[in-house]
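Same chain as my last thread, 256 residues:
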Amino acid sequence: MSSNCQKTILAIIRATKPAFPSGNLSSKYIFNRFNGPSICPTSFRSYSKKVKEAKQKIKDLKSEIKTDNEGNLELVDLDKLREKMDKVIHFLSNELLSIRSGRANPGLISSLPFKSKAEKAKRLDQVATISAKDAQTLIVVPFEEDSLSNIEKAIRNSGLGLNPLTEGSAIKVPIPRQTNEDRQKIIKALNQLTESTKVQIRKHRQDINKQLKSKEKAVSKDYYKQWEKDIDEVASEYIEKIDSSIKLKIKEIEKN
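reply #2:
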């Protein structure tokens, strides 16, 4: 304890005239006998300053938080969270369309990249119409006939195991039937796609939980817990969408 602090305490004690043995009114005696005051006035001032700063920090934090139409604090933006998760689901939907199920589906090749010498890369459905002639055949009709050979090449080199044939001004794309081995490979790939998509959803949930954590001290514990619950419910909703989409695709594959 500093000398100034001890002098201050001794002055207070003398002013109140406590009963001490004669000649023993010293800082050593006082602090040994009574374990002395552990906080001097300067420490009180320092503590008070910290409390004031903490209160101001919470006040500033609350001022940064938006409110809804009813005046309730919106700790995080759940609409933005949904937008991000919607993009994940949209990506998954496109991936599922590009997976061969054994039936003719225009979505199988619609998003294939196509690039001509004069233009930037585009999706195949931006340069041609794609339709299903029957359960096992797709028909591709280019908007410009001189792009026939390039479109045929794009389909052949897509890695989908397709062998397109040019017939006049159109391209016929036979869809081969799947074997049991093919189905098992596709289902395995779908399970991997399921997990990687869920990881993206969990990442978005983790990011928004970090935002929520930074505002924890600005609200009551119950209010904070309710927002945690709301975030978990949104994430669970999108996890269910993923599971539902994958199950439908697997069912489609197993039927063909």
